[in-house]
Amino acid sequence: MEAKSSDLKLLGGWFSPFVTRVKIALNIKGLEYENIEEDLNSKSDLLLRSNPVHKKIPVLIHGDKPICESLVIVQYIDEVWSNGPSILPRDAYDRTIARFWGSYIDDKFVVCMKNILMAAGDEEEKKRHLEQLEEEVLVTLEEAFNKCSEGKSFFGGNKVGFIDIAFGSFLPFLRVFEEMNGREILVADKFPELVNWATNFVEDSTVTGTLPEIDKLVLFATALQEKWVAAKVAAK
Q1: C-alpha to C-alpha distance for 161 and 25, rounded to whole angstroms
Q2: Does residue 110 share a domain with residue 34?
Q3: Are 23 and 208 in contact (CB under 8 A)?
Q4: CB of 154 closer than 8 Å to CB of 200
Q5: What stretch of H or E contains 66?
Q6: Cα 9 to Cα 116: distance, rounded to the nearest angstrom
Q7: Fewer CB near the terminus (10 Å): N or C of the chain?
Q8: What is the pTM of this model?
Q9: 66 near 55, Cβ under 8 Å?
Q10: What pLDDT does 1 receive?
Q11: What confidence tens digit (pLDDT) does each residue in 48-59 have?
Q12: What is the pLDDT of residues 85-111, one digit of tens each?
């Protein structure tokens, strides 16, 4: 199935790693689409109609059908445009494993990153979440890479796949956290395989141009942190 830019619309934001996931999947399939930047301070009627439950980006609109949630969208793209390069493995068990690690990334890695950002002003809490990220989550993902890659460049083998998209889209935010906290997190002496993988990922042709600029993202993350901290204080 081919898609024209008029058939596919992506409601997103330049800053969102969840949106980046969808952009990479679309690139892998070689699909044209209309990119619509949303203002999250004034959400469009199209976004509110397309995702009435969560009212969040990303949303992929295929014709008149909205699809929500980043990893759900990636799987939809892979299934509908099955004639293009595969994103999920062909084998049923391998697909299940890929989905498991996608869920782990959202449930552990993403949550840990958010907790670090929200812990501003509480050094003990921030230290605890940073330790969890470095000593538990990234250690687990290093081990997962060794098993899933089978000695190749990506979690998906020789090419960017589902786990690579799920995790790699957050690499810019990991860099931002390093800058904001004055410490390197993804370092070669602790995570040699992930460091090599990260280099391969950002240089892949399907990823090039999808990742936001770090300096710009630092400003966004700082403003987001201030907003979350203010809301946290107001709730007390």
Answers
A1: 9
A2: no
A3: no
A4: yes
A5: strand 65-68
A6: 33
A7: C
A8: 0.95
A9: no
A10: 52
A11: 999 999 999 999
A12: 999 999 999 999 999 999 999 999 999
> Both tokens of residue 182?
């004055």
Six-digit token string for 107:
């449930």
Beta bridge partners of 11: 36, 59
Do strands 8-12 and 34-37 pair parallel, antiparallel, or not at all (unpaired)?
parallel
Q: Which 8-state DSSP code applies to residue 183? A: S
Contact predicate 210/160, CB 8 Å: no
Nearest to 73 by CA among 54, 91, 92: 54
Block residue for tokens 């690690």: 101
The number of residues making up the chain comes to 236
Q: At what angle do helices 171-181 and 214-235 cross, to 10 degrees?
A: 70
Query: Could you give the number of structural domains in the chain?
Result: 2
Which helix H or strand E contains 8, and what residues bound it? strand 8-12
pLDDT beyond 80 at 19: yes
Task: Please tell me whether residues 54 and 105 are part of one structural domain.
Answer: no
Two tokens, residue 83: 């004639």
- How large is the greatest C-alpha to C-alpha distance in the chain, in angstroms? 53
Residue 20 and residue 26: Cα distance in Å, rounded?
10
Q: Are residues 108 and 223 in the same domain?
A: yes
Paired tokens of 172: 């810019």
Element (H, E) at 35: strand 34-37
Q: Cα-atom radius of gyration of the chain, to the nearest Å?
A: 18
For residue 59, the enclosing domain spans 8-81
| 37: three-class secondary structure by DSSP | strand
Could you give the count of Cα atoms lying within 13 Å of 234 in the half-sphere of its Cβ? Answer: 6
